[in-house]
Amino acid sequence: MIRRLLQAVVVVLLVTVITFILLRLIPGNPAIAIMGPQAYRNPAAIVQFDRVYGFNRPWYGQYWLWLDHLLHFNLGYSYNLNQSVASLLANHLPKTVFLVGISIILALLCAVPIGVVQAVRRNKIVDHFFNGFSTIFYAMPAFLLGILLILVFAIKFPIFPPEGPQGEGLGVLITNFNALVLPIVTLTLITIALFSRYMRSSVLDNLTEDYVRTAKAKGASERRVLLRHVLRNSLIPIATLLGLLLPALFAGALITESVFNYPGMGYLFYQQALKQDYPTLLGIIVVVAVATVVGSLLADIAYAVLDPRVRYVSQ
Amino acid sequence: MSLAGGSPEPIPTDVKPDPLSNIGVAVVAYPGDADAVAAGMLPAGKPRSTFRRGLEVFLENKLAVTGVGIFVFMLLFCFIGPLIYHTNQLQVDFAHEELPPSSAHLLGTDASGFDVLGRLMVAGQVSLEVGIAAALLATIVGVLWGAVAGYIGGFVDSFMMRIVDALLSIPTLFLALVVVSMITPSKPILILVIALTSWLTTSRLVRGEALSLRTRDYVQAMKAMGGGGTRAVLRHIAPNAIGTIMVNATFQVADAIALIVALSYLGLGIRPPQTDWGQMLSNGVQYVYDGYWWLIIPAGFCIVIVIAAAIFIGEGLRDAVEVRLQRR
Fold it and tell me: Smallest CA–CA separation between B308 and chain A, in Å?
């Protein structure tokens, strides 16, 4: 476990190195980018700027300064929005967490039963039906699904608004829940497609295990074997999967938020990518990457807690 | 969601040797071995190669064959189609904009007066070219990275794989968006960006294979004869992992097409006057309130069936390769 923790630390450090390299790759001079092209007329101002913000240091000095800022939760400053990246995230991140969180919960509630039914009725009509369902939604880009939902449920039959809830704070999400339905449905359907495939193969693997035969031999009912034995064991890999799929879910959230103008972190990222606001982009990347590393670390710990076999092997 | 940057089903990173397969190896019957033929161990004539057996399993899979059919059809549609169905995709024609489907324009025209069916072909060329080329490049990079890491092992392996972990923790879409916002993307640049952000899963799989392959007798024998590391990686490890690589490459095609289409939809992919299916969709969305369905549905349909076809092919290939793995 210590080894795993050290690995996570190394990965986080590498993430900061990669982000820093990206930061350095950006064409142009930061002083000019911030003070405007007229700064060329005043070289002293550029020198002054570089000295104040540490751009006169060698690259490792700059990296160290940047890392130091990161450790103090100083993610940089968006000159474009005239706001610190940390405060931007404080505004936008909770909305994304809310959207992704609800979608994951709903997706698990649907994908787990679907996966079990598919595995038990393997190669029957139900299995083929849900296979087709998950392939279509896996192949369908999130934006297409979002557009189709808008087309049907906002324009043809105006039941839900075509835009996500607008405004500051988390309160609008609750008061405007109607507007939240389509974004949540989009992300949930796509997440179900991701999960149900894994769930199906996980249940299939477990159905052939010896303990299933033992339980049946002891006279346990089909239902009890499925719910008490197979389901519990099949859910364990899903914990790891959640950690692994976090980047995919963030990407899905970016697209979903862009389609519905939902003011979360993904939408912020997209808007600032169009405006080449690099401090914001890289700040968000660091946060997302660290969240993913921590998420998969937690998932691995959960795995070891839930499945004693993993602990024995690692000892 | 195809932006997952991975195959839709878990593929084991280390292949467990099937204990039963060793028993099979103990009673090897060589072709042309008269005793074996006489004993009924082998049918007379040529034995079926693992490739043939794999091919048979693949051909039995109806979905996979359908996938190949769809994919070939879409390639013909996009690259040969314009030679048969002539449309003007260069000059805008505002006299004939946003026309509904009719006999003159089978799928109507878009906001610039381009014939939508013809546009689908031209746009598909970009989506398919970028998707396939990026997947190939990503596969090459991933195979080399994974094979080298797995072959060398030790500290180098851990370090190389931690870099992969770090890159994997950044969503591909986010990374690609940053890069394409720095430079105006053209087709080659998009191929490069997508390839360089999506070789990671391949490298993990190939590393797993390399770890198990490097201990095999024939690799050891080659080393004993004085063969170097480059030879081991290029001549032995990469070719022997070819099954896993092919399966992964097919899923890579699906993911790469999904990524280029998403980038173009967001306005940061291919730029006008060139177009692709994602851009067609994002242009069409502006008219969604007017009920111009033909600006959205056909492009969306193309994206979904091409990606689904690639997934079906990948799944068929995986089943076929598993036949090979069982024999090993």
Answer: 5
How many CB atoms lie under 10 A from the CB of residue A310? 15
Mean per-residue pLDDT for A26-43?
74
Burial of A183 (0-12, 13-18, 19+ CB in 10 A): buried
Q: Is B33 at the interface with chain A, CB within 8 A?
A: no
The reply to whether residue A14 touches residue B165, judged by beta carbons under 8 angstroms, is: yes
For B167-217, what is each residue's pLDDT tens digit? 988 888 998 888 888 888 888 999 999 998 889 989 988 888 888 888 788
Provide the shortest C-alpha distance from residue B42 to chain A (in Å).
Answer: 32
The residue-averaged pLDDT of A36-40 equals 75
Burial readout A204-220 (b: 16 or more C-beta within 10 A, e: otherwise): bebbeeeebeebeeeee
Residues of B in contact with A269 (CB under 8 A): 174, 177
- Say whether A274 and B169 touch across the interface (CB within 8 A): no
For residue B297, the one-letter residue type is I
Predicted-assembly ipTM surpassing the 0.90 threshold: no
A274 touches chain B (CB under 8 A): yes
Taking chain B, what is the end-to-end CA distance rounded to the nearest angstrom? 34
**B80 at A interface, C-beta within 8 A:** no
* Identity of the amino acid at A19: T
Round to whole Å and give the CA distance between B33 and B36. Answer: 5
Within an 8 Å CB–CB cutoff, is residue B155 touching chain A? no
The conformation of residue A275, written as its DSSP 8-state character, comes to T
The Cα–Cα gap between B192 and B187 comes to: 9
Q: Would you say B201 and B142 are in contact if contact means Cβ atoms under 8 Å apart?
A: yes
| Calculated CA dihedral for residues A221, A226, A228, A231, nearest 10 degrees | 180
Measured CA to CA in angstroms, residue A63 lies from A16, A24, A69, A77 at distances of 9, 10, 10, 16
Q: Which residues contact B232 (CB under 8 A, 6 or more apart)?
A: B151, B214, B219, B222, B223
Q: Which amino acid is at A52?
A: V
Residues 99-118 of A with CB under 8 A from B: none
Segment 22-61 of chain A within 8 Å of chain B by CB: 22, 25-27
Asked whether B299 and B314 are in contact (CB, 8 A), the reply is no
Rounded to a whole number of angstroms, the distance from the CA of A282 to the nearest CA of chain B is: 8
* Contact assignment for A289 to B6 by CB distance below 8 Å: no
The answer on pLDDT for A277 being more than 50 is yes
Q: What angle do CA B306, B308, B311 make, to 5 degrees?
A: 110
Looking at the partner chain, which of B165, B171, B281 has a beta carbon nearest the beta carbon of A250? B171
CB B85 within 8 A of CB B38: no
